[in-house]
Write a structure and sequence with these properties.
Elements: H1 2-24, H2 41-46, H3 48-51, E1 55-68, E2 71-78, E3 81-88, H4 94-102, E4 108-117, E5 123-134, H5 150-155, H6 157-163, H7 165-186, E6 191-192, E7 198-199, E8 211-214, E9 219-223, H8 228-236, E10 241-249, E11 261-270, H9 274-293, E12 297-300, E13 303-306, E14 312-315, H10 316-324, H11 334-343, H12 354-366, E15 374-377, E16 389-390, E17 393-397, E18 399-404, E19 407-414, H13 419-434, H14 445-454, E20 458-464, H15 465-473
Parallel strand pairs: 3-5, 6-10, 14-15
Antiparallel strand pairs: 1-2, 1-4, 2-3, 4-5, 7-9, 8-9, 10-11, 11-20, 12-13, 15-18, 16-17, 18-19, 19-20
Helix pairs in contact: 6-7, 7-9, 7-15, 8-14, 10-12, 11-12
Organism: Alkalithermobacter thermoalcaliphilus JW-YL-7 = DSM 7308
EC number: 6.1.1.6
GO biological process, one term: lysyl-tRNA aminoacylation
Amino acid sequence: MIKEEQNLNEMLKIRREKLSKLQQMGKDPFKIEKYDVSHYSTDIKENFDQLQGQQVSIAGRIMSKRIQGKAGFIDIQDQEGRIQSYVRKDRLDEQEYELFVTYDIGDIVGIKGEVFKTQKGEISVKANQVTLLCKSLQILPEKWHGLKDPDLRYRQRYVDLIVNPQVKNTFLIRNKAIKAIREYLDERGFIEVDTPILNTIAGGASARPFITHHNTLDIDMYLRIANELYLKRLIVGGFDKVYEMGRMFRNEGMSIKHNPEYTAIELYQAYADYEEMMKITENIVAYMAQKALGTTKINYQGKEIDLTPPWNRMSMQEAVKKYAGVDFDTIKTDEEALEVAKQKNIEITPGMKRGHVINALFEEYAEKHLVQPTFITHHPVEVSPLAKRNPDDPTITNRFEAFVNTWEIANAFSELNDPIDQRERFMEQLRQRELGDEEAQMLDEDFLNALEVGLPPTGGLGIGVDRVMMLLTDSPSIRDVILFPTMKPIVEE
């Protein structure tokens, strides 16, 4: 191991010496500001018949190099893929070829030359000119230890993208799926808006916020945990269809499906209900899959999942009855519910009521069975402080969560627009905070004022974009679909 490190240090030293020599010769690559690129690798390969014999200009990173005396081959990687270049000494001036021979894997070069096909049938560029555009002073992992350690891959995503082509493909799929979300909503009359990321009240969800401090105002502020309450204010103001996609921040645990900052989309539609939100949810996820993958049937970690609408539906109480064996139609009081919780080994927390028990039993016994897309509906009012009550049963709300692969990927409801009921629910949330629930929601007086001005009947929906991306890209961890996931800093000893 010590010998390997010594060899690596020597290789790094040689690269710096090569750079120094170039600089002494007046050929410092870092002084080059621009290089005109006429074609990318895929352009040349897909249009070879038209480009054969034509002059092109390409640029990219040297990924492999084979020198045989007076000629050599290098593979250039650009943003779209790789292409081979054939470099002969007699086509370059003498000094240019001598320098070319010293270039390392990882260096970035520009090549001007003629498109042709080698005797082995490989489409290539026959170089007339090779220009060093950037000297790489590090060794690419595949040339040394390899880049297999997931932690290192996430920390050095720039290297991960270079040496693992499938990683770049993951983010190209993500890009197509993100575009599909906007396309779907824009075509249906939704308006994309921006709302504050820094908030004086952390509202719109039950979650622990990140706290910061504004020096000029001398007040604590919060990174948003949701954008719900601002978007509803816009519905009050007269925008009938709005959405916002962006980063949310929650100061909570990290896991394969949780990152402290993540991408979510929330949308609100006036004069619509949770049933309409169900249609949008299943259709928008299917549309994302179709646009990004060309199919709505995916394989996730060996499981076949069909995203084609319509999705399954089941109330939360039905799910608890089916998977936990508890029928809450026969359990009406908080005391009875708490006794069931004890029997089912559910942790009893301060202020726990019947609705909390139903939700806890669902999470413990039912979620793990929801592999195929399923809407779980009619959550208890205790765990749904912003949702409208069901008119036939005021103990439940017209809310749903969408589950795929046992994960919640979406949350939606008919929005509570009764300001009196909303105030009572906020007050109950404050009581929960006083009992130690740090995720309980805060009182937002301005939002209550907006409700008093008048919020029309409205349907709202939030989708966890990163979790959907995990499904579409067959990625086992949320870190695989976030370019730069949150990482614990490495502390030098």
